[in-house]
Amino acid sequence: MVPLRFYRHLIPRLCAAARSPFSPAPAAAAAACAPRPIRSLPSLAMAAYGTGVSADRRLLFRQLFEKESSTYTYLLADIADPEKPAVLIDPVDRTVDRDLNLIKELGLKLIYAMNTHVHADHITGTGLIKTKLPGAKSVISKASGAKADRSVEHGEKIYFGNLFLEVRATPGHTAGCVTYVTGDSDDQPSPRMAFTGDALIIRGCGRTDFQGGSSDELYQSVHSQIFTLPKDTLLYPAHDYKGFTVTTVEEEAAYNARLTKDKETFKTIMENLNLSYPKMIDVAVPANLVCGIQDPPSKV
Ligand SMILES: [Fe+2]
């Protein structure tokens, strides 16, 4: 039998669920959350992964998946704000209808469709979203050179209601890559969450051999902008090819197969990956540089 202590990290999220208006039996669920003696914790089990409404009842969070490019799209909303303002990070053109339908079902108001970088393996959904939801604005880094309604730089805050994402420049996979990180004050989600794009994927990282990539820069970016976040920060990548969904700073600093090495070893690894030319790059990059609108709609 598995000792109870291995499930201890789930308890705060279960308590949050017990307070949810969707919970069918609040009294029973609350009873299950009563304090119980817990002796010790495994050192790497500090951060809980959860979807749904966070403990402070303000953040709604969904992790969505596009299977052809193995891309994650993230939906975040401030549901304590009367307008329920929301952002989508890294939407994919093929799944825009799914995403917008979910947003509608949940009663959210999408204000930003954001990209962590100019993707080479799929076409962003931001262009399509803007044609279907004219009020939504696209966001990407200024350094990417791509067209968007809002071009952001390192240190900027992107607000949705009372919640915000901080922009951290993490170049190296591409010259314009950024990581979006939730705030660090008491009224922001805890633990913090970082949406790393392809700068860091679970136990690995994005390639650095095209689109202004640099292994030297990527190493510096991850170590200075991601590994310096609190250990329990939840890291959400733009892709996963093995079935993983989330990791933490502590886990990656201990187990990332590439980024735990010294810089010179990391550079040697990246120079010898011998990856094939991305099959979508010649279509995806030009489209993504103009917000995913390949052929602007005619005025007819
Ligand atoms: Fe990428």
From TrEMBL:
Q: Name one GO biological process term.
A: hydrogen sulfide metabolic process
According to the entry, every stretch annotated as the Metallo-beta-lactamase domain falls at: 70-239
> Can the keyword Cell division be found in this entry's annotation?
no
Q: Which cofactors? A: Fe(2+)
InterPro entries noted in UniProt: Metallo-B-lactamas, Mito_Persulfide_Diox, POD-like_MBL-fold, RibonucZ/Hydroxyglut_hydro
Q: Which keywords does the record carry?
A: Acetylation, Dioxygenase, Iron, Metal-binding, Mitochondrion, Oxidoreductase, Transit peptide
For this protein, what reaction is catalysed? S-sulfanylglutathione + O2 + H2O = sulfite + glutathione + 2 H(+)
| Top-level taxon of origin | Eukaryota
Task: State the compartments where it is located.
Answer: Mitochondrion
- One GO MF term attached to the UniProt entry: metal ion binding
**EC number of the protein:** 1.13.11.18
Q: Which family does it belong to?
A: Belongs to the metallo-beta-lactamase superfamily. Glyoxalase II family.
The protein's name is persulfide dioxygenase
Gene source species: Lolium multiflorum (Italian ryegrass)
